[in-house]
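From the methods appendix. Each design record in this collection lists the tokenized structure first, followed by the designed amino acid sequence. Records were kept in a plain field format so they could be parsed without special tools. The example shown here is representative of the layout used throughout.

RECORD:
FOLD TOKENS (355 positions):
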């Protein structure tokens, strides 16, 4: 009997239990995280070891450094997750892990560890797409949320509009064609000498500025498109700064930050509301690192309320890369019989279309 066949039989046994516990691992970028999640939505532990301080001096994530730190931390993080949850390996029913997209070296650390645990403990292994994890963070925050609905996933590497039709059933309505929203924030923060990570720093500075002071472009692409493009906006900010420098003019950095942020948010909010209108969905959710942006939350809430849509978003800790959201996504894949082979590999670039 193959591993997949053996685990399929085991899933049938697991489904008879009242409490299904998933040990989940997330190492797609610079957070080493492990969680224990019960029945998909009850987080027993969610340990996150951030590497921000290690990468700040470089102005961004250094892949080799991130991979090395994951190797150093993964055993401790897993032990802490089990300890905080008050369980042992014998209490775990399945192992879930992010296997893409992300930094390939960082992903390999988590995937290798998860495969070793699944093999040694004879447990089902469930590979999870990173974006699906972000989407599922809302299930943890909002216990009554059920598909279908529209979600905007905005983070450092992704800007996706997704029609969530069911658990594990997604239609990508729009995605970034170049820079993701969070990536644009980081690049503008670097241009303004704000430091890393850029998103929170730009948001903080923007509170002191006038969001209408500078007329930066809003890129909506062709009529009806729900795709995103922020490279032109990023270039417009850089050109503005360079022009001021060449002319010897002073730069009000707060106005630049506020005007840039507003240009990003206008497009994100407009296209999200358009997606809800196009699909007829009445529930809109927000997810990903940029979901922690307070102004984005407020503007999307106002637009959704005006249109008669219910709006939801996760708490700050669930907007970051974390293993709890991976455990939630892994649970719903597990109960639908989706099991990954022990040959599961990391995939730095992986679309949800073929997932």
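DESIGN:
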């Amino acid at each position: 009997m193959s591993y997949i066949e053996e685990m399929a039989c085991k899933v049938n046994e697991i489904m008879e239990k009242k409490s299904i516990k998933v040990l989940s691992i997330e190492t797609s970028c610079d957070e080493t995280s492990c969680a224990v999640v019960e029945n998909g939505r009850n987080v027993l532990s969610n340990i996150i070891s951030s590497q921000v301080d290690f990468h700040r001096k470089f102005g961004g994530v250094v892949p080799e450094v991130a991979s090395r730190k994951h190797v150093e931390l993964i055993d401790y993080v897993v032990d802490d997750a089990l300890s905080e949850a008050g369980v042992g390996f014998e209490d775990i029913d399945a192992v879930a892990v992010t296997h893409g997209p992300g930094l390939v070296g960082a992903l390999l650390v988590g995937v290798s560890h998860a495969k070793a645990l699944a093999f040694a403990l004879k447990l089902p292994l469930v590979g999870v797409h990173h974006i699906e994890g972000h989407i599922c963070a809302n299930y943890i925050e909002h216990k009554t949320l059920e598909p279908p609905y529209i979600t905007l996933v905005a983070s450092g590497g992704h800007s996706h509009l997704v029609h969530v039709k069911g658990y594990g059933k997604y239609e990508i309505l729009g995605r970034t064609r170049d820079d993701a929203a969070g990536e644009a924030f980081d690049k503008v923060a670097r241009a303004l000498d704000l430091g890393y990570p850029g998103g929170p720093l730009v948001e903080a500075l923007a509170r002191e500025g006038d969001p209408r002071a500078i007329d930066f472009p809003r890129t909506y692409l062709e009529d009806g498109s729900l795709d995103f493009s922020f490279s032109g906006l990023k270039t417009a900010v850089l050109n503005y700064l360079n022009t001021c420098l060449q002319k010897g003019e002073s730069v009000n950095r707060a106005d630049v930050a506020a005007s840039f942020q507003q240009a990003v948010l206008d497009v994100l909010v407009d296209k999200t509301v358009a997606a809800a209108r196009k699909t007829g969905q009445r529930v809109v959710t927000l997810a990903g690192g940029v979901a922690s942006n307070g102004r984005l939350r407020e503007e999307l809430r106002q637009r959704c309320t005006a249109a008669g849509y219910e709006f939801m978003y996760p708490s700050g800790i669930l907007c970051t890369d974390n293993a709890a959201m991976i455990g939630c996504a892994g649970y719903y894949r597990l109960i639908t019989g989706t099991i990954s082979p022990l040959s599961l590999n990391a995939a730095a670039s992986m679309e949800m279309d073929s997932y």
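APPENDIX NOTE: The domain at 3-136+319-335 is CATH 3.30.420.40 (Nucleotidyltransferase; domain 5).
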